[in-house]
Write a structure and sequence with these properties.
Elements: E1 12-16, E2 19-22, H1 23-51, H2 56-66, H3 70-73, E3 77-82, E4 85-90, H4 92-102, E5 105-115, E6 118-127, E7 132-141, E8 143-146, E9 150-153, H5 157-177, H6 182-198, H7 204-217, H8 222-229, H9 238-252, H10 270-312
Antiparallel strand pairs: 1-2, 3-4, 5-6, 6-7, 8-9
Helix pairs in contact: 2-4, 4-5, 7-9
Length: about 325
Amino acid sequence: MSNGPIDPEVMPAASFNGSYVPVQQQKDVTTEMAIARQAQEIQAAMVIAKRFPRDEYEAYNRIMKACERSSLAETAEYSFPRGGERVNGPTIRLAEALARNWGNIDFGMMEMEQRNGESTMMAYAWDLETNTRQTRIFQLKHERKTKARGITKLDDPRDIYELTANQGARRLRSCILGIIPGDVVDASIAKCRDTLAKGNGKPLEDRIREMVVAFDKLGVSKDMLERYVGYASEHFTEKDIRELIPVFNAIKDGMAKREDYFDIPRPASQTEQDFQQARQQTTELPKEKKGKKDKEPIANGGDSDDSDQGQLL
């Protein structure tokens, strides 16, 4: 029996009938088993999809029924300015609802690798019935860029997770919309707009009040909303609410910033405050000097008379 150093890669890991399996070989076997199990799951899902194909008429009705829910309709569409134009489209929430109700679709996102301060992500959507697949693979640096602080490196696992989940959701939405027929997507958006117009039985005043409170939590005040729309919130209409909801969703999901829509008042810097104070003091000085000049001749005159009289005596 040898007493030399043991290589951990070939160190005995398990014994079956007196035979030993090296650690490296055991790792390879585990990986192969996981790949084989995943392949079997995909094959089983494709067989079931072929055996139970979707009823497109029933799937369409399920989508329309889902779009009648106000909770989905309020988060179904986004809107943000780009190049002087306004871009509208379905959000990830609506895309997920479409995939679930259309049926026989496997979709999701995963982090394939993470190293050197960046992640390799993959988003996919697979129509198991027609074998149509959409895939997006992208690199994502662990950074956050803002106008105030510039580029900030992220090292907190929670911040990294939120960044990858947010960016992955955008690619996942693109993959799902590449699978679902375009006319079904357009019909779902129209249905959600119709649901918003009905207001779920709530009075218009209550909906306006709730919308103002929701925007305030994002840092958008009532005055900003009124300047954006062009008149007081008491006169907002159904059309204004329908236009503001996609703006709210875009800011909330991180697809746009407040500055893209609203005039954010900037706090005055210390230099500007000093300048304003100095300017205010200069405007008040002439009044004080004028009052002193009115009194000085009498005092100086009295002093001069006394001095003159002293010299003559």
